[in-house]
Design brief:
The complex is a heterodimer. By secondary structure, chain A is α/β, with parallel strands linked by helices. Chain A has helices at residues 31-44, 76-96, 114-129, 139-145, 173-186, 230-235, 299-312, 361-374, 388-391; strands at residues 24-27, 49-52, 68-69, 107-111, 135-137, 161-165, 169-170, 190-192, 197-203, 206-212, 215-218, 221-224, 244-255, 263-266, 271-275, 280-287, 321-331, 338-341, 347-351. In chain A, strands 5-6-4-14-15-16-13-17 form an eight-stranded mixed β-sheet. Chain A has a six-stranded mixed β-sheet with strand order 8-2-1-12-19-18. In chain A, strands 9-10-11 form a three-stranded antiparallel β-sheet, with no helix packed on it. By secondary structure, chain B is mainly β. Chain B contains one helix and six strands, in the order βββαβββ. Chain B has one helix at 36-44, and strands at residues 3-6, 10-13, 18-22, 52-58, 66-72, 78-80. In chain B, the strands form two sheets. In chain B, strands 3-4-5-6 form a four-stranded antiparallel β-sheet, with no helix packed on it. A two-stranded antiparallel sheet of chain B has the order 1-2. In chain B, a hairpin with a 7-residue loop joins strand 4 (52-58) and strand 5. Classes of the chains: A alpha/beta, B mainly beta. Chain A binds chain B through residues 229, 231-232, 235, 240-245, 289-294, 298-300, 333, 389-392, and chain B through 1-2, 14-15, 18-19, 21, 36-37, 39-41, 43-46, 48-50, 53, 55, 71, 73-76. The structure holds flavin-adenine dinucleotide (FAD) and zinc ion. Zinc ion is lined by residues 6, 8-9, 59, 62-63, 65 of chain B.
């Protein structure tokens, strides 16, 4: 098959040829890039837009994640943007006119020692103060909602309780990408696959366009939304970012009858699991500690995670592994995104979502599009400016928000 | 899993080691003299190449010594760091 043949059935999007010039180009056709393009067209009247994707649409982290959606983050800045996202998720199927299998099945974060319990309750109270739904569950309440969790006190890390966000859940990630792509396409956005950005047209501290494997494209606004590959792009313009790219893995089991109808996560023993509607157990593992761009992860990371999973859910010992895969996530020092303007006029940045950006997709698109359209940060994006690493106003979500996902 | 060649113990499995990030980042000689920008650069800015990278490893479960290697972050091939300064 010719890799540049991107023809798709009509019910998706046009396979656009890149034009020589656009008002804005979005680099990266993952969920965040597509949501940005959709929002530019739908909310800001900027329809002369191209999304440039080096591979195929949603071939990056977007369709590799474990689809967990929640907004129970600790810090006010995070609560604000993730809760904005959750509210948008609640109306997204209607907005895009597409079924996304958005399912508010609840997200449970387990606590395994006294410190864990305290941190979880602190987060729960912080959530309530921010108007975000949060409940505390004792072990008996946990098994009422999810009977397969092992609450035996004999575990090395016994289950002492959990926070529960009922409005949290999952959505079909590939459908979310296609929904945004179809919506953006309908509004006139060109979605250009197999088009890698290889350079920038810079002049006097201002960007005028990009070089690509399919020619030069002029644009006075260039938005980088390239997740794990962002540093490779910013290296081309001499902009140093506090980002490290790591492989993060996930896996699915063979199809099983329904055994779990919520999402259960544990930070302490690091496992998170939900069950897809058709029956696979979807589980996430940790990141490789080192920088890596191989879209696979280390086997011992999977082993470690499986051991934790089987101890917490003894019934999983019967499950067979179907496949594992990896994505390249861009992690910042405070585990929060970098979103906003750059020292280069016309160049905008949206990255650093690391291991947990899927849940933010609608808000990421909305606030980034507003930032691009107005040439100034959207109020929800303001705390996420690159300057925070110089001012010290970090939004330290490492560990604070229970598992990073 | 990586097979990492500790300069003192020889090749061992990755699980014996702890990762230490980019190598050759010197602590500022006069920290108080740095501007906020320079301090931020020292604390937070690191290279993130798709290709060769000078990095540090700590042999946690072995000799407990630090050393540097050059690893290709795309192919994961490792070689000793010629500028080794552990
Ligand atoms: C295994 C795994 C599990 C995860 N689980 C969760 C979860 O449960 N919940 C959650 O909220 N988040 C989760 N995440 C994180 C989430 O997937 C990411 O934070 C989010 O998808 C990042 O935004 P994106 O969708 O735009 O990135 P991507 O989909 O990676 O999009 C970036 C795109 O840019 C393209 N690109 C890169 N360089 C160039 C270039 N030079 N030219 C053109 N295009 C380029 C890439 O090909 C890619 O398609 C998980 C991630 C992984 C890997
Ligand atoms: Zn050693």
């Amino acid at each position: 098959m010719d890799p540049t043949d991107t023809a798709r059935p009509d019910r998706y999007w046009r396979a656009a040829e890149p034009k020589p010039s656009y008002e804005a180009v979005v680099v990266g056709g993952g969920g965040h890039g597509l949501a940005t393009a959709y929002e530019l067209a739908a909310r800001h009247g900027i329809t002369d837009v191209a999304v440039l994707e080096k591979g195929w649409l949603a071939g990056g982290n977007m369709a590799r994640n474990t689809t967990i959606i929640r907004s129970n983050y600790l810090w006010d800045e995070s609560a604000a943007i993730y809760e904005h996202a959750l509210k948008l998720w609640e109306g997204l199927e209607e907005e895009l006119g597409t079924e996304l299998q958005f399912s508010q099945r609840g997200v449970m974060n387990l606590s395994h020692d006294v410190g864990d319990v305290r941190a979880s309750k602190r987060r729960l109270h912080a959530n309530r103060l921010n108007g975000i739904d949060a409940e505390w569950l004792e072990p008996d309440d946990i098994v009422e909602i999810c009977p397969i969790v092992n609450i035996s006190p004999d575990l090395r890390y016994p289950v002492l309780g959990a926070t529960f966000q009922r409005r949290g859940g999952t959505a079909r990630h590939d459908k979310v990408a296609w929904g945004y792509a179809t919506g953006a396409d309908r509004l006139g956005v060109d979605i250009v696959e197999h088009c890698e950005v290889t350079g920038f047209d810079l002049d006097g501290g201002r960007v005028h366009g990009v070089e690509t494997t399919r020619g030069t494209i002029h644009a006075e606004k260039v938005a980088l939304v390239a997740a794990g590959h962002t540093s490779a792009l910013t290296d081309m313009v001499g902009l140093r970012l506090p980002l490290q790219s790591h492989p993060l893995q996930a896996l699915v089991s063979v199809l099983l009858e329904p055994v779990i109808d919520t999402v259960v996560m544990s930070n302490k023993v690091h496992v998170y699991v939900s069950q897809a509607d058709k029956g696979e157990l979807v589980m996430g593992a940790g990141i490789d500690p080192y920088i890596g761009y191989g879209q696979r992860g280390s086997f011992h990371v999977i082993e470690h995670q499986m051991a934790a999973a089987v101890e917490l859910f003894p019934i999983f010992a019967h499950a067979k592994l179907l496949r594992t895969w990896g994505g390249i996530v861009d992690v910042s020092p405070d585990a929060s995104p970098i979103l906003g303007l750059t020292p280069i006029d016309g160049l905008f940045l949206n990255c650093g979502w690391g291991t947990g950006g899927f849940k933010a997709t609608p808000a990421s698109g909305a606030v980034f599009a507003a930032t691009i359209a107005r040439d100034e940060p959207h109020p929800l994006a303001r705390p996420y400016a690159l300057e925070r690493f110089t001012t010290g106003a970090l939004i330290d979500e490492h560990g604070a928000a229970a598992v990073a996902h | 899993m990586l097979l990492i060649d500790c300069p003192w113990c020889g090749p061992r499995a990755e699980v014996e080691f702890r990762y230490g990030g980019q190598a050759h980042i010197a602590y500022p000689e006069d920290p108080a003299a740095l501007t906020d920008q320079e301090w931020a650069d020292f604390l937070f800015m690191r290279d993130n190449p798709k290709g060769e990278f000078h990095e540090r490893w700590f042999h946690t479960a072995g000799c407990r010594r630090w050393f540097d290697v050059v690893r290709d972050t795309a192919t994961y091939v490792l070689r000793p760091d010629p500028e080794h300064d552990a």
